[in-house]
């Protein structure tokens, strides 16, 4: 199932980073799981779509990471904020 997340940090040198979902869960990812169009656009704070990689043991990882653009990005940004706020109310 595709999830919405935000890049918590990204290392241009090491080509890896961490994504957080609205619940605060963290997912490791590296350049190998980025969709081709996204490879040059990874920055800390970027909204992303991703799947959880359940085939990796001991580390929670993301796969199929995509950085949306334009109106899609704006819509996902709002959804992420709403989900974050709703969860903080509980």
Would you kindly provide a written description of the structure presented here, covering whatever features stand out?
The protein is globular and about 35 Å long. It has a 5-stranded antiparallel sheet, with helices on one face. 21% of the residues lie in helices and 36% in strands. The chain contains 1 helix and 5 strands; from the N terminus they run E-E-E-E-E-H. The mean pLDDT is 90. It has one helix at 70-88, and strands at 3-11, 16-20, 26-30, 47-53, 61-66. The longest helix is centred in the C-terminal third of the chain and has 19 residues, at 70-88. The protein has a single domain (3-88), classed as Nucleic acid-binding proteins (OB fold (Dihydrolipoamide Acetyltransferase, E2P)).
Overall CATH class = Mainly Beta
Q: Beta-strand percentage?
A: 35-45%
Overall helicity: 10-25%
Mean pLDDT: 90
Bulk shape:
globular
Question: How many DSSP helices?
Answer: 1
- According to CATH, the homologous superfamily is Nucleic acid-binding proteins
What is the CATH topology descriptor?
A: OB fold (Dihydrolipoamide Acetyltransferase, E2P)
The largest sheet is: 5 strands, antiparallel
Spatial extent as radius of gyration: 13 Å
Short structural summary:
This protein is 21% helix and 36% strand. By secondary structure, it is of the alpha+beta class.
Keywords:
alpha+beta; single chain; OB fold (Dihydrolipoamide Acetyltransferase, E2P); 1 helix; 5 strands; five-stranded antiparallel β-sheet; 90 residues
């Amino acid at each position: 199932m595709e999830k919405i997340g935000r890049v918590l940090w990204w290392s241009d040198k090491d080509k890896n980073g961490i994504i957080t979902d609205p619940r605060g869960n963290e997912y490791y990812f590296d350049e190998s799981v980025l969709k081709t169009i996204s490879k040059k656009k990874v920055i800390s704070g970027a909204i992303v779509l991703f799947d959880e990689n359940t085939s990796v043991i001991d580390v929670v990882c993301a796969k199929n990471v995509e950085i949306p653009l334009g109106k899609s990005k704006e819509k996902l940004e709002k959804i992420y904020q709403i989900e974050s706020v709703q969860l903080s109310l509980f």
